[in-house]
Amino acid sequence: MSSTAESASSPAAPAVASRQAGAAQPGAGPAAVGLHPDLSAVPRIDFVLLALAVAGVALSAPLISAIAAPAVAIAFWRNCMATGILAPIALLRHRGELRAMTRRTVGLSLAAGAFLALHFAMWLPSLRLTSVATSTALCTATPLWTTLYLRLRGHRPPRVVWVGIGLAFAGVVLLTGFDLTLSSRAVLGDLLALGAGMAASGYFLLGSEVRRTVSTTAYTFVCYATTAVLLLVACLLSGQSLTGYSPTAWWQIVLLTASAQFLGHSLSNRVVRTLGPSFVSTAILLETPGAALIAAVWLGQLPPVAVYPAVAMILAGLLLIIRGSSSRSGQGA
């Protein structure tokens, strides 16, 4: 997820569904469901944790680009490792909850895992086809797709949200049009990143529904396990090698799992209870410039100057979508 995109398990997803996200934390206090909490009363450590979460997801894209291993195989090992770490916690401390999950919540969790697998299967290859800045910006358009989906379901966003949608779409068209002048390879990367963002939106919407009644640990265990199995099948069918990597590549995969899967997502889940989904969603947008900066310093990957205005338009549009949707939700719309 991109981390927004990646983090669809993270509450740093669009605030248009923030009411569902807030209700998704079993046993959470009032701050967990507040759209506009009093930030002056929030412990400073939570802001530090949020900064670490943003840094964790921002490291994801440059790290994936640097790992000398097949893209889908990286996604498999990342989810496999995460599932392995979650397994003893989920099976020992949440066994009763897992058994009590209804057929509906299990089905939604499996479907969310399928969307997450699709997200990874498209986003990771896109990082090999286009720049980190472009891929991350297009993939973090999750709030855009979620808003459009909710509109189809009858929700009526305020005018500022439509302005944000128009601005974000204009940025997408500008960015993809520029890549069209570079190569068809770059355009394919753009399309994969857009598709990954759409898949992340589906993953978030399903996950927010499950987390109304199921803890994050139980839900993510079922979801990550499903994702790992589906990605394993994809690797076997496509002939991607699952072993034979260098020690450096294995350490980088472990670092990816720790930074993005756990540090980024878990800390986002932790601080959303006090900072609120709107604030966290907005902060996670910093993933795009953060990833671009890391890629420039570490990989020497400097996108053409024309890319930056398009990325800025996308981020500005997403910010309007998040803010406008959050304000409408806060009014009980």
From TrEMBL:
<feature type="transmembrane region" description="Helical">
    <location>
        <begin position="75"/>
        <end position="93"/>
    </location>
</feature>
<keyword id="KW-0472">Membrane</keyword>
<feature type="transmembrane region" description="Helical">
    <location>
        <begin position="249"/>
        <end position="267"/>
    </location>
</feature>
<feature type="transmembrane region" description="Helical">
    <location>
        <begin position="218"/>
        <end position="243"/>
    </location>
</feature>
<feature type="transmembrane region" description="Helical">
    <location>
        <begin position="129"/>
        <end position="148"/>
    </location>
</feature>
<feature type="transmembrane region" description="Helical">
    <location>
        <begin position="47"/>
        <end position="69"/>
    </location>
</feature>
<keyword id="KW-0812">Transmembrane</keyword>
<keyword id="KW-1133">Transmembrane helix</keyword>
<feature type="transmembrane region" description="Helical">
    <location>
        <begin position="186"/>
        <end position="206"/>
    </location>
</feature>
<feature type="domain" description="EamA">
    <location>
        <begin position="188"/>
        <end position="322"/>
    </location>
</feature>
<dbReference type="Pfam" id="PF00892">
    <property type="entry name" value="EamA"/>
</dbReference>
<feature type="transmembrane region" description="Helical">
    <location>
        <begin position="160"/>
        <end position="180"/>
    </location>
</feature>
<feature type="transmembrane region" description="Helical">
    <location>
        <begin position="305"/>
        <end position="322"/>
    </location>
</feature>
<dbReference type="GO" id="GO:0016020">
    <property type="term" value="C:membrane"/>
</dbReference>
<dbReference type="InterPro" id="IPR037185">
    <property type="entry name" value="EmrE-like"/>
</dbReference>
<protein>
    <submittedName>
        <fullName>EamA family transporter</fullName>
    </submittedName>
</protein>
<comment type="similarity">
    <text>Belongs to the EamA transporter family.</text>
</comment>
<feature type="domain" description="EamA">
    <location>
        <begin position="49"/>
        <end position="176"/>
    </location>
</feature>
<feature type="transmembrane region" description="Helical">
    <location>
        <begin position="279"/>
        <end position="299"/>
    </location>
</feature>
<dbReference type="InterPro" id="IPR000620">
    <property type="entry name" value="EamA_dom"/>
</dbReference>
<feature type="transmembrane region" description="Helical">
    <location>
        <begin position="105"/>
        <end position="123"/>
    </location>
</feature>
